[in-house]
Amino acid sequence: MDSKKKKSATALKVNEGIEPPPPINEELLKRPLKQKDIHPAEYYVEGIIEGNRSILSQAITLVESSLTTHQKLAQKIIESCLKKSGNSVRIGITGIPGVGKSTFIEAFGKQLTQMGHKVAVLAIDPSSQRSKGSILGDKTRMMKLSADPNAYIRPSPSAGSLGGVARKTRETVTLCEAAGFDIIIIETVGVGQSETAVHSMVDFFLLLMLAGAGDELQGIKRGIMEMADAIVINKADGDNLPKAQQAKSQYESALHLFPPKTSGWSPKVLLCSSIYQTGISQIWDIMNEYIEIVKNNGYFWENRKRQSIQLMNDTLHEYLLESFFSNPTIENKYQQLQKKVMNSELNPYKAAHELFDLYLHIMSTLKA
């Protein structure tokens, strides 16, 4: 029996929870801007283009605000900054807790700044509304990168939905690019639905993995592996190196089973040790190789166009939902129908139709 277990051992095990989430610090949550702190759009645009970090942060806070006046001002700022944006390389990084994401991003980011790049690190954490901003701990865990004059780290916006977080993050990317950051790193918190959101706004998607943490096969969602342009096995050092090398071979074999990417790129599997700074430069080399290929074959710009259309559709969807539920009559009716659906007193489809019919009636009354 033991020999059978040993035979089925694999190097692809990921040990969740090695790296506990940072403690919640409610004091660090962003404070709403006071009216006296609000300036004309030109003030923010000029400050952003000049590379003023303080003004950039203020503008991002406006983007993240739910106040209508702040949102209108934020849209003016974004519109003015659009012509100065789009010249960065956008990199998405994901990996479950324990994979050493913060350590990797700090090591990777420091190498890039030493090469003369300006790096902005953003986060997508749809759970931040419930956890009250636990992602803020990432800034304190990346102390060296935080102190780097050529780096900027911004916590996840505390929006209630993944769509809201994703839209605000996309807008933040525009502002960071206008501020002169030529590399934007967007990290996800954990492995979940946020990967799709990040993948839809980046040029290169990196999946961080571990090896040698146990003897059972770690189930990785096929969809996440298919999205990855590269898989990096972190903590490939010391006694863990042989298992990391074994995992590399296994992932390479697994990737051959996936259909070819429309980008014309064959995903790579790499090893690195964030602590010992090994393999980091090779990862950047692979990214450069990828960018060169997809720019030459036209995929890079076609993908950016598709992402812009998706952003428009996602934003429209979000605005429609906001408009729908902003009406108190709709909200009250929704609560009533929700209880009926939960108690199996009403078909969910019929409930949705009732709500929509009520919405159309209210809209027609307003027009009249």
Strand share of the residues?
Answer: 5-15%
Task: Describe the strand arrangement of the main beta sheet, using strand numbers.
Answer: 3-2-4-1-5-6-7
* CATH homology superfamily of the largest domain: P-loop containing nucleotide triphosphate hydrolases
Got a strand count? 7
Round the mean pLDDT to the nearest integer and report it.
Answer: 84
Helix-strand pattern:
HHHHEHEHHHEHEHEHEHEHHHH
Helix content: 40-55%
- Poorly predicted spans: 2-30, 129-136, 213-217
Secondary structure category: alpha/beta
Query: Helical region count?
Result: 16
CATH architecture of the largest domain: 3-Layer(aba) Sandwich
Q: What report would you give on this structure?
A:
- 52% of the residues lie in helices and 10% in strands.
- With 368 residues, the chain is of the alpha/beta class.
- The protein folds into 2 domains: 84-297, P-loop containing nucleotide triphosphate hydrolases (Rossmann fold); 310-367, Helix Hairpins (Orthogonal Bundle).
- Strand 5, helix 11 and strand 6 form a beta-alpha-beta unit.
- The longest helix is centred in the C-terminal third of the chain and has 27 residues, at 299-325.
- The relative contact order is 0.12.
- The model is unreliable at 2-30, 129-136 and 213-217 (pLDDT under 50).
